[in-house]
Amino acid sequence: MAVTIKNAYEIGMMRVACRLASEVLDFITPYVCAGISTGELDRLCHEYMIKKQKTIPAPLHYQPPGYPPYPKATCISVNDTICHGIPGEKVLKIGDSLNIDITVIKDGYYGDTSRMFIVGEGSILTKRLIQVTFECMWLGIAQVKKGAYVGDIGHAIQTYAEAQGYSVVREYCGHGIGKVFHEDPQILHYGRPNTGLKLQAGMIFTIEPMINAGKCDSRTMPDRWTVKTRDRSLSAQWEHTVLVTETGYEVLTVSANTQKPPDNH
Ligand code: MF3
Ligand code: CO
Ligand code: CO
Fold first, then answer.
1. pLDDT for 158-174, tens place per residue?
2. Residue 169 C-alpha to ligand 1 middle, in angstroms?
3. Least packed by Cβ within 10 Å: which of 72, 92, 147, 245?
C-alpha cells in the first residue's frame, strides 16, 4: 500500500477528527477513579462519541486479518497490559495505571490518540515510567520534519527508553492514518537514524510508543486482542497523530486538556 500525501482539504478534515478524539479523553478524565470499571469508562466514551460528537468509534467491530472483531468502542489497557485491552468488568483501584486509546471517525476521517492515567497516587516507579514514555513520544515527534527519515523517530525513542533502563515493544507500531485506520507507513519505535522512508510534507501518521519497565516481550491473551508483558512488568503508552509540515510537524490530536510537551521541547 502506498503512503498517501494529504491535501489541504484532507488535512482540515483530519484536524477535526483528531481534535474530537482528543476531546473524548478530556471528557473521560474526571471519571477515571477507584471503583469504576473499565467497561463503564468505555460505555461513557461510546455514548459521548455517538450522542454528543456524532462520531463513530473506530475500534468497534474492527477486524484486521487474523483477528476476531474488536468488541468495544475503546481500548483500555491497565498495568501490565501493553495495548488493546478490552474494557469489561475490571474495577480500577488506587495505584493502577491505565492507557485509554480513542479512535473516532468523523465524516470518513480517523483521529487516533491515547493518554496514560493513574488512579489516585501512583508509585514513584509508575509515575516515572509514564513520564519517560511521554518524553519518548515527544522525542519521536521532535524528529518529524520534511526530509527526515522514519528511522530517526524510532532511534530517538529507543535510545532514550533504553538509557532509562526500559524496553521498547517491537510487535506494535505507529501507522499512517487518514480515510483508513491503519495505512502505510509503519512507524517503528526503534531503529537507526537516516534509514527507512523519507518524510514528505502532507504525510499524517501516529507516534505511539509502548514502553515496558521490564523486558520487551509480549503475550497475547486468549481473547486474541489483549496484549500483556510476558514478564508481568508495567507498560505505558502515549499516542498522538502528527502531520509532517514544510518546517516540522503539527500535532493534530489536540484539545483543551492536552498535556503540554515536556520542558525540554
Ligand atoms: N487505537 C489503536 C492504535 O493506536 C488501535 C486499536 S485497534 C482495536 O492503533 F481494534 F483494538 F481497537
Ligand atoms: Co494508532
Ligand atoms: Co490508538
1. 999 999 999 999 999 99
2. 15
3. 147
